[in-house]
Amino acid sequence: MIDYAKLTWPEAKALFDQDPVALLPVGATEAHGPHLPLDTDVTIACAQARRAAERLVERGVPAFVLPPVAYTVAQFAFGFPGTITVRPTTLWNLVEDVVESLEQHGVRRVVLCNAHLELAHVKLLRGLLKDHAKMTPRHAQLIFPDITRRRWAQTLGEEFLSGECHAGRYESSIVMAADESSVREAERLALEPKEVGLIEKMLGGAKDFLEIGADAAWCGDPASASAEEGRALIDSLATVVVSTIEEEWPDRFDGTATHPASASASPPAIPPASPGASPSA
């Protein structure tokens, strides 16, 4: 697995010449109960992206993992100290700028690895795809293996599929596998299972965790989590990413791909900044 941030610029240039897949982890900095850290979503997104990159490289597809996006729309947990939320346009413009910067360097395949499931955030990521829907010699394509889609949700365990999974067994297991020392074990083991109707109430218009009865920013069954289950879930999350990539870019796996940027005579000019831009979704 190639950690993009640890490359030198000549190493990055050499990698870009190989028509690589860029994986961008996306998470949030927000409350996850009394037992998980504020960067839980970031940890999960990075674990997914790293495992997916390893599997891509094993299959002969160059891939690298970008530094994660750690701030996004996080209004649902904003009633708890520690949560940081940003304007939707902030996230939109940041992801746009990352994709367009990679475009300037010849990267044409960018994948979002998202672990923050707040509805407004997921909707925004889906909207971003419209700006990068097609790969051309001058433009990158952005794809989003969306684990909230039923096709993928049903591969991630009963708790995830039920929706009662904020800092529950699903997320606790993954953090135990990926960053065990950050889990407060005494607090986790003391938690009894809790159902709050998270998805139904979110879809019904609930504004935050406090309104739905998740008064400590968690639900589900964190005490039943295990690192072993977390490792299996990370593999399942990686499968979501690799399968989506293979479906979207089969040529990258069968040896028929040519570097899409090679047909471009010269790189496009860097577009002017547009701080007032707003998302279309």
Describe the structure in brief.
The protein is an alpha/beta fold. It has helices at 9-16, 40-58, 88-104, 119-128, 150-153, 158-162, 169-178, 185-189, 198-203, 209-212, 227-248, 251-254, and strands spanning 2-3, 21-26, 63-65, 109-114, 141-143. A five-stranded parallel β-sheet has the order 1-3-2-4-5.
Walkthrough of the structure:
By secondary structure, the protein is of the alpha/beta class. It has one domain: Rossmann fold, CATH 3.40.50. The chain is 41% helix and 7% strand. The protein has a five-stranded parallel beta sheet with strand order 1-3-2-4-5. α2 links the parallel β2 and β3. α2 crosses α7, α3 packs parallel to α4 and α7 crosses α11.
Which characteristics define this entry?
281 residues; alpha/beta; Rossmann fold; 41% helix
Radius of gyration: 19 Å
The largest beta-sheet arranges its strands as 1-3-2-4-5
Fourth-level CATH superfamily: Creatininase
H/E element string? EHEHEHEHEHHHHHHHH
Q: By helix and strand content, what is the structural category?
A: alpha/beta
Large-scale geometry:
globular
